[in-house]
Amino acid sequence: QVRLQESGPGLVKPSQTLSLTCTVSGGSISSGGYYWNWIRQHPGKGPEWIGYIHHNGNTWHNPSLKGRLLISIDTSKSQFSLRLSSVTAADTAVYYCARITEAGTHSYYYYMDVWGRGTTVTVSS
Amino acid sequence: QSVVTQPPSASGTPGQRVTISCSGHRSNVGSNTVNWYQLLPGTAPQLLIYSNNQRPSGVPDRFSGSKSGTSASLAISGLQSEDEAEYYCEAWDDSVNGPVFGGGTKLTVL
């Protein structure tokens, strides 16, 4: 059974860079048909998709965060990472990593079938 | 404000049937399949329904999903106290080229 585990600092100072890592266990991060995602949830709000990376290195980001975001993958360590620069209090949230499975034949559909438990990141001086 | 709209709260008594609605737009719910997730505090979110009405293995058949046009719904029958949680719908959005979520519905079992 594939499991995901987020790790990284719980407190980041304003204007600094938030860095998180997600470790994949119980399965291969290099398997086809999957996209490795970062999602965050602000208090009292619905989850917000941040971006994803494929094992071949292709990434796609939420346009609202473009310019501050870097998602990378290290298949040798079964990890993918998030770096969000120039953070403000608005970046305070619970951050999740999740796997999107791509399914279907003629018409594709997607769903997030594996999630980490999430890690709380607070931006404060 | 979320791109996809859900009622903020829902409630029911044990054994009842409850439905949670999800209203989107042509670019997301109207064009792509809808998934539903259950969030319990301190635990990893769980996929309940995928592709509008499919249940992953291990999810009780008390949970069912449907979609019509730009709206979708999650139904929970035979409500149990353990169903008290937050529920989110999600669909791929063609304008973002990524998933968008509803604002969530907090279900209370009275």
Compact summary:
Chain A has about 120 residues and is mainly beta. Chain A is about 0% helix and about 55% strand.
What does it look like?
- The complex is a heterodimer of chains A (125) and B (110).
- By secondary structure, chain A is mostly beta strands.
- Chain A is built from no helices and eleven strands.
- Chain A is 0% helix and 54% strand.
- Helices cover 0% and strands 45% of the residues of chain B.
- Chain B has strands spanning 9-12, 18-23, 34-39, 46-49, 63-68, 71-76, 85-93, 98-101, 105-109.
- In chain B, strand 3 and strand 4 (46-49) form a beta hairpin.
- The N and C termini of chain B lie far apart (28 Å).
- Classes of the chains: A mainly beta (125), B mainly beta (110).
- Chains A and B meet through strand 5, strand 9 and strand 10 of A and strand 7 and strand 8 of B.
Q: How would a crystallographer describe the biggest sheet of chain A?
A: 7 strands, mixed
Mean pLDDT of chain B: 95
Report the strand count of chain A. 11
Radius of gyration of chain A: 14 Å
Distance between the termini of chain B: 28 Å
Along the chain, the helix and strand elements of chain A come as EEEEEEEEEEE
Radius of gyration of chain B using CA atoms only: 13 Å
Low-confidence stretches of chain A: none
Average pLDDT taken over every residue of chain A: 94
Q: State the major sheet of chain B.
A: 6 strands, mixed
Q: What share of the residues of chain B lie within helices?
A: under 10%
> Uncertain runs of chain B with pLDDT below 50, 5 residues or more?
none
Helix/strand/pairing category of chain A = mainly beta
- Work out the number of β strands of chain B: 9
Structure characteristics:
heterodimer; A: 125 residues; mainly beta; seven-stranded mixed β-sheet; four-stranded antiparallel β-sheet; 54% strand; B: 110 residues; six-stranded mixed β-sheet; three-stranded antiparallel β-sheet; 0% helix; globular
Secondary structure layout plus pairing:
The complex is a heterodimer of chains A (125) and B (110).
Chain A: E1 3-7, E2 11-12, E3 18-25, E4 34-41, E5 48-53, E6 59-61, E7 69-74, E8 79-84, E9 93-103, E10 109-115, E11 119-123
Parallel strand pairs in A: 2-11
Antiparallel strand pairs in A: 1-3, 3-8, 4-5, 4-9, 5-6, 7-8, 9-10, 9-11
Chain B: E1 9-12, E2 18-23, E3 34-39, E4 46-49, E5 63-68, E6 71-76, E7 85-93, E8 98-101, E9 105-109
Parallel strand pairs in B: 1-9
Antiparallel strand pairs in B: 2-6, 3-4, 3-7, 5-6, 7-8, 7-9
